[in-house]
Structure formats: C-alpha cells, structure tokens
Prior knowledge:
By secondary structure, the chain is mainly beta. It is 6% helix and 39% strand.
Amino acid sequence: MTASGLRAWITCVDPRQAPREWAGRIFDPEFVRGVPAGVDPCGERGEFHTFAFAGPMFGTPVATRPGETAEREGFVYADVLSSPA
Length: 85
C-alpha cells in the first residue's frame, strides 16, 4: 500500500497493543518498516486506526496536519486538522 503512495495519519492507538507515541505519526514506508513483530502493520487487529490523505485513489492529496493528542477511555487519539493547501 505505501509503495503505491498511500499516506495516512495514525489517529488512534490502543496502547495495550502498540506504542502510544504512534498517535499523530504518519503511516508511510518508514513507519511500516519499524512495526515490531506481533503488531499487524495495517492495524487489522485494532492496534491503531488511520486517516488516509494521499494515494493513487485520490485526485489530489487532502491538505492535513496532526493536531493535539489526548488519551481517553483507554485509547490515545490524535486530531487531524485541515492545513492550507
């Protein structure tokens, strides 16, 4: 997916399954290479959730940037904010 140009923000992390510091990071080839064994690199077991903003399925990338990070109800959330184009 990332080799084709998909980019996403990591918007939610379950800290029982993945590092809380991932919230607000970009999901790209570098991130995928660093995912430790036991964690699905696509978050398919609920380790994390993403917001895709660029890739071959987009006419143009969605201009976004990470916002504040907060922990609520056992999960770590990162806001995604619009960014001037």
